[in-house]
């Protein structure tokens, strides 16, 4: 038996944003984009859907299970609805802007759609604001994207920011140097993802001992780096460690108020990252506010790049309710110049479209705190 | 919406609690007397630390509270963690209490009667449908799970399902119901779990508690 569909019902994980939330969201995105633009990042706007083959190439493959697909009736090819905008921006940098001078700084804002939400983040349509810094392998670039992400979040009003730096290449380098097989690596990966020290120890051997120490090293940056330094790492991993230390020191200098933690074994969602990566949190806020890090464009063989994505839904959860824009009821027949002046002062004017007997009552009915009487603003009782 | 400033430790009701409380004490946490009062309706309890409260909830709910950051720390068996696989939960410490195992059990008279390699589908009564599905999928068998919240051992004798997947401690409940363990899925112990964002944003405090529990567990 099919129940009739209620007209308000939306598919799972989708929602309408009503006043004032829709305006608040747009304001947050605008403030973050203004910070990115002011640092020389130029905005691009890729389309909502593109050919699946391109969308899921290289690092985009990570989003394959989350991507809605449909058949394009015109080209008879599969097209995918973007679940992440980073691969699109990387594609633009590689192709249409391939000849633009490097380093290339691009930013973007848009909506993405995911097949499934997470358990603790059920939204399937979420907003992204991001920046990509393409064509450079410099440590200064790593530092720029971390501090820029923090600055954009701070400008949108997020307090108590905390960045967790990680090295997705460290564990693979250690595993390779110790000659672990693929099955053992997979078991370790799963255990490390849950910080399950017991399961790491259960794998046994030298690898378990070293990875157990890496696991225990996670924490506040200065302490974590000191514990990392004390470990005897294979040469490839040691080089990565030195780079991480340099990035941490430079971020600490550039953003002294930012809380920094280091987690050498964090990997989830960083499978395609090739160097220093990071996740942004805020105290008391559920989930991640954003993440970013080093990758290569194309099929992992393209240019060195780094960047970040901020998640608008989590950012909104982190913000206190902003002061509403004051609304001023302007009765029919009022002086248009007086109303225009008030708009210039920051009021939102709500024009009466028909004469009313009691302007105060009409103002109240329309959710205005004040009304215009001649040139005077009167407050409701 | 912002969470609590006071850290919240979620403890599981029931079987495990008696084994966990001594660890909590050894970690230097004294819970207010109402916690031990069976007549109290209170759900949230103050401790000897002004910045730490304790809540007591069902063991599956411990994981939910911690995953969503409503509680920052908790104690949960790895059976619960395996069932939900919450990405926002870290399990940094094995408390080495609440030992048991997760197993497939069937009526004694069925054991060895047919060849499991020929199965394409099994019907299983369990509290752990996800673990069960994954376990059987790994060997190419589709598990049709009937979710029960208790008394799984009744299912085979009443024809609800041939097999069950459940926690086994001594095996006496299985034997009393004419069942035998036919497959081992995992060894289970209680873990100290923490919310991922809490660990990152309050690294010093949360790591401090993990260390105190580590010392308490090692001393046991």
What does this structure look like?
The complex is a heterodimer of chains A (381) and B (220). With 381 residues, chain A is an alpha+beta fold. Chain A contains 13 helices and 16 strands. The model of chain A has no long low-confidence stretch (mean pLDDT 93). Chain B has 2 domains: 7-98 and 189-218, Periplasmic binding protein-like II (D-Maltodextrin-Binding Protein, domain 2, 3-Layer(aba) Sandwich), CATH 3.40.190.10; 100-188, 3-Layer(aba) Sandwich (D-Maltodextrin-Binding Protein, domain 2), CATH 3.40.190.10. In chain B, 30% of the residues lie in helices and 31% in strands. Chain B contains 8 helices and 11 strands. Chain B has helices at 17-26, 59-67, 78-84, 129-137, 154-157, 172-176, 196-201, 203-219; strands at 7-12, 44-46, 52-57, 73-77, 89-94, 100-107, 121-126, 142-147, 163-168, 179-188, 190-195. In chain B, helix 1 packs across helix 8. The chains are: A alpha+beta (381), B alpha/beta (220).
Features:
heterodimer, A: 381 residues, alpha+beta, nine-stranded mixed β-sheet, four-stranded mixed β-sheet, 22% strand, elongated, B: 220 residues, alpha/beta, D-Maltodextrin-Binding Protein, domain 2, 2 domains, six-stranded mixed β-sheet, five-stranded mixed β-sheet, 11 strands
């Amino acid at each position: 038996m099919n129940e009739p569909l209620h007209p308000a019902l939306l598919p799972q994980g989708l929602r309408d944003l009503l006043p004032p939330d829709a305006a608040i969201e747009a304001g947050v995105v605008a403030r973050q984009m203004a910070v990115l633009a002011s640092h020389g990042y130029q905005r691009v706007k890729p389309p909502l859907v593109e050919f699946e083959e391109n969308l899921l190439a290289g690092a985009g493959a990570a989003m394959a299970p989350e991507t809605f697909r449909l058949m394009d009736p015109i080209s008879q090819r599969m097209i995918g609805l973007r679940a992440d905008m980073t691969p699109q921006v990387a594609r633009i940098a590689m192709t249409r802007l391939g000849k633009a001078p490097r380093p290339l700084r691009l930013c973007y804002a848009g909506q993405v759609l995911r097949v499934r939400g997470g358990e603790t983040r059920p939204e399937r349509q979420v907003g992204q604001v991001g920046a990509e810094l393409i064509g450079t392998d410099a440590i200064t670039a790593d530092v720029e994207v971390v501090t820029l992400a923090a600055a954009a979040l701070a400008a949108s009003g997020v307090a108590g920011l905390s960045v967790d730096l990680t090295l997705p290449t460290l564990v693979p380098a250690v595993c390779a140097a110790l000659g672990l097989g693929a099955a053992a690596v997979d078991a370790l990966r799963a255990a490390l993802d849950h910080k399950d020290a017991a399961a790491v120890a259960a794998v046994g051997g030298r690898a378990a001992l070293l990875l157990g120490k890496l696991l225990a090293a996670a924490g506040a940056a200065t302490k974590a780096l000191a514990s990392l330094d004390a470990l005897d790492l294979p040469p490839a991993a040691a080089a990565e460690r030195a780079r991480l230390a340099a990035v941490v020191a430079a971020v600490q200098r550039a953003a002294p108020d930012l809380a920094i933690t280091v987690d050498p074994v964090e990997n989830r969602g960083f499978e395609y990252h090739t160097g220093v990566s990071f996740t942004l949190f805020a105290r008391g806020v559920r989930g991640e506010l954003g993440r970013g890090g080093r990758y290569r464009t194309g099929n992992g063989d393209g240019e060195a790049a780094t960047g970040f994505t901020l998640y608008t839904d989590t950012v909104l959860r982190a913000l206190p309710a902003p002061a509403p824009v004051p609304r001023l009821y302007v009765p029919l027949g009022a002086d248009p110049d007086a109303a225009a002046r008030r708009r210039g002062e920051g009021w939102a004017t709500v024009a009466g479209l028909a004469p009313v007997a009691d302007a105060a009552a009409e103002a109240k009915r329309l959710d205005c705190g004040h009304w215009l009487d001649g040139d005077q603003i009167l407050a409701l009782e | 919406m912002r969470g609590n400033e006071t850290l919240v430790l979620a403890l599981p009701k029931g079987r495990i609690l008696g084994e966990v409380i001594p660890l909590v004490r050894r970690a230097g946490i004294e819970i207010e007397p109402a916690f031990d009062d069976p007549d109290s309706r209170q759900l949230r309890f103050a401790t000897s630390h002004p910045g730490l409260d304790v809540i007591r909830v069902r063991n599956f709910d411990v994981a939910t509270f911690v995953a969503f950051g409503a509680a920052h720390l908790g104690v949960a068996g790895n059976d619960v963690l395996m069932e939900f696989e919450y990405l926002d939960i870290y399990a940094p410490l094995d408390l080495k209490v609440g030992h048991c195992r997760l197993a497939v059990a069937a009526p004694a008279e069925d054991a060895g009667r047919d060849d499991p390699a020929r199965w394409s589908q099994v019907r299983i009564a369990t509290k752990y449908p996800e673990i069960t599905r994954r376990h059987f999928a790994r060997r190419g068998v589709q598990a049709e799970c009937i979710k029960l919240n208790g008394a799984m051992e009744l299912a085979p004798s009443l024809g609800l399902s041939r097999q069950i997947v459940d926690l086994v401690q001594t095996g006496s409940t299985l034997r009393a119901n004419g069942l035998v363990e036919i497959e081992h899925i995992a060894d289970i112990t209680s873990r100290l779990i923490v919310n991922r964002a809490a660990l990152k944003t309050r690294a010093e405090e949360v790591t401090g508690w993990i260390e105190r529990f580590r010392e308490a567990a090692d001393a046991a």
